[in-house]
Design a protein that fits this description.
This protein has 496 residues and is mainly alpha-helical. The protein contains 12 helices and 4 strands; from the N terminus they run ααββαββααααααααα.
Length: 496
């Protein structure tokens, strides 16, 4: 508890309240009144604290939070202590989840009570500065106690047993502090990597959606281009003896040019290449030993220092003589060197993570823009396809009107309507001189005659089938439906 200055201050005031000399004033709280010390102690025990590790400086800030206090209020306090504007602050949990400024802080905190009622360490959030493109190791070691500084300057200095035990204990505590500081910074670096992986997962889903949409658009474009090519080819085949329309031909040419401007294959390929390069960088970050929880040299050094201090304490009384601290100083120097080396590696890894995260954030609007353009292109292709089909049906109507209508120059062509009744068209096909009838018209007449023949055959087959069914029904034994004579007489008596 005393590791937090806030708790230390509150407990100090509570102890002053409980140790007042005057018996009537003892335990009297300024707010809760007489015997208010118990409510004050309850407030201290139920106090919720949150720790924020500033990844820029490596300093841990502790803040008390109320039940419904929003994260914005906490960010305001952080700005006063760190100087980082609220708009540039990003708070991450250990799992890499970014905190929502609109939600209460307590919703983001885990339960700080153990099953036996004891309190755990306060929740630790990691503070990042969004305006920083890279991070540099600006971490300074905590000031050493006077005795530790003394043995660092003169390791061979001899101390009495009690003073030597104090010096070795403080040196062990210094090594343990270095290990804890390094572990917290490594934990913050891993949280940044986890946050990057979350962004990368969302980006991968968008990439798959973009690739699927690109394939669908490509298929529709290929189908439309092939349809236009077939239309133009057939149009050119019949242009000498059939229908000509410069307006329709110009519309098809315009459709071709408009479709050529659709499709975003190059943009999609460039974005996919950028995403694959980013994926490679992320995999390299994950392969780094710093990305995984593991014991290191500082853990081993802290364990050796603890064993050295324990051995000194457990010495028999007759062996508690003067001694030096050379072995502990050797462990302490190794711990300091290892701490500085590991801090540089952590911040190098953190800078790479921040760069990859910035690339991922830049790709999101680009992917959304390309997908929006592809959706517009898809709507354009559908609109052009509908227009093409409409123009094609209009052309077919004109062709059918010329094929089924009277010959040009005949007396029937002077009427107001160029189309005959459907029954007349089916029963009396127009007879044209062979020199004026094109091949396509002859084929249409042949198909019409064939369809009439098939219809008559189908009608004959249906009549035969119905006749056979009627005969088969009559040939069946229906005697089981007849009512016996006794039952028939019974029905007659009852009816009378």
């Amino acid at each position: 508890l005393f590791r937090s200055s806030i708790l230390a201050e509150k407990l100090e005031k509570w102890l002053q309240l409980m140790l007042m000399w005057h018996p009537r004033k003892r335990g009297t709280h300024s707010t809760y009144g007489q015997n208010g010390c118990f409510r004050a102690l309850d407030d201290i025990l139920s106090l919720k604290l949150v720790q924020v590790l500033n990844m820029v400086t490596g300093v841990v800030h502790t803040y008390p939070v109320e039940q419904d206090e929003s994260l914005k209020g906490l960010m305001t306090q952080i700005f006063k202590d760190t100087g980082i504007p609220e708009s540039n602050q990003e708070l991450l949990q250990e799992a890499g989840l970014a905190l929502d400024p609109e939600k209460p802080v307590t919703n983001c905190m885990a339960d700080s009570k153990l099953p036996d009622g004891r309190s755990t360490e306060p929740d630790l959030f990691f503070l990042f500065d969004k305006s920083k493109p890279a991070y540099e190791p600006q971490i300074s070691q905590r000031p050493h106690p006077e005795s530790v500084s003394c043995i660092l300057q003169d390791p061979k200095r001899v101390f009495p047993y009690q003073q030597l035990k104090k010096v070795l204990g403080q040196a062990w505590h210094t090594i343990r502090t270095l290990k804890e500081d390094c572990n917290r910074l490594q934990q913050g670096q891993r949280s940044a990597l986890m946050n990057l992986l979350r962004y990368n997962s969302t980006l991968s889903k968008q990439k798959n959606s973009m690739a699927s949409l690109s394939q669908q658009l490509k298929a529709k474009l290929d189908f439309f281009r092939s349809s236009i090519e077939i239309d133009l080819e057939k149009y050119n085949e019949q242009i000498e003896f059939g229908i000509t329309s410069e307006k329709l031909l110009s519309a098809w040419r315009d459709m071709e040019q408009e479709v050529e401007r659709c499709g975003r294959e190059e943009d999609v390929e460039q974005l996919v290449a950028k995403m694959m390069a980013l994926q490679t960088d992320i995999v390299d970050l994950q392969r780094s030993p710093l990305s995984r929880k593991q014991g290191g040299t500082l853990d081993d050094l802290e364990e050796h220092a603890r064993d050295l201090y324990r051995k000194l304490r457990e010495k028999p009384r007759d062996q508690r003589t003067f001694g030096d601290s050379q072995e502990m100083v050797r462990l302490l120097l190794q711990a300091i060197q290892n701490f500085e080396k590991k801090i540089r590696l952590i911040y190098t890894q953190l800078s790479k993570t921040v760069v990859c995260r910035q690339k991922a954030l830049e790709l999101f609007p680009q992917v959304e823009e390309v997908m929006s353009l592809m959706n517009k292109d898809e709507k354009t292709v559908v609109r052009l396809q509908e227009k093409r089909q409409k123009e094609l049906w209009n052309l077919l109507k004109i062709a059918c009107s010329k094929v089924r209508g009277p010959v040009i120059g005949s007396p029937d062509s002077m009427g107001t309507s160029r189309l005959a009744a459907p029954s007349q068209l089916l029963s009396q096909p127009p007879v044209l001189p062979s020199s004026f009838v094109p091949d396509s018209v002859k084929k249409s007449d042949d198909l019409l005659m064939e369809s009439q023949s098939l219809c008559s055959q189908l009608e004959t087959a249906m009549r035969d089938t119905l006749r056979d069914q009627d005969h088969s029904f009559k040939s069946l034994d229906w005697s089981w439906l007849q009512i016996p004579e006794e039952e028939r007489n019974g029905f007659a008596v009852s009816s009378t």
